[in-house]
Amino acid sequence: MHELALAQRVAHAALEALAGLDPPPRRVVRTVVVAGRLHQIVPDFLTRAFGYCVEGTPAQGSGLDLEIVPVTARCPACGWTGEIEPPWFVCGDCGRPGVEVRTGKEFYLDRLEVERDDD
Ligand SMILES: [Zn+2]
Prior knowledge:
By secondary structure, the protein is an alpha+beta fold.
C-alpha cells in the first residue's frame, strides 16, 4: 500500500502552502490532488491516510479530492495519440507495442480550498 507515502507527500505540500499564507486561513475545506491512473491509487486509502497525516496540523479536517488523469500515449510508428488501457501498452490504431506514455504518471497537490475569517 503506497497510499500512505503519497498521502505524506500531499500533507507536506499542503502544510508548506499553508505556512505561506498570511493571515492563515481559518480552516482548510478541501485538498485537491491530481493523480495519474498509473499510480493505481485506492481513493479511500489515500483519503484515510491523508486524514492521519494532517491530524493535529492546520490542515486537520480537510477533505481530500482526487482528480484522476487517464493514461494517454503516442505511437512512434504511426503517430496515433490517444487513451490506452493499462496494462496494455499498445497503439490504439496499428496495435504495435512500444507506445510513449504521455499522461497518467502525474501526482501533485493541485490546490487548497480554504475558509478565511472574513468569509
Ligand atoms: Zn500505431
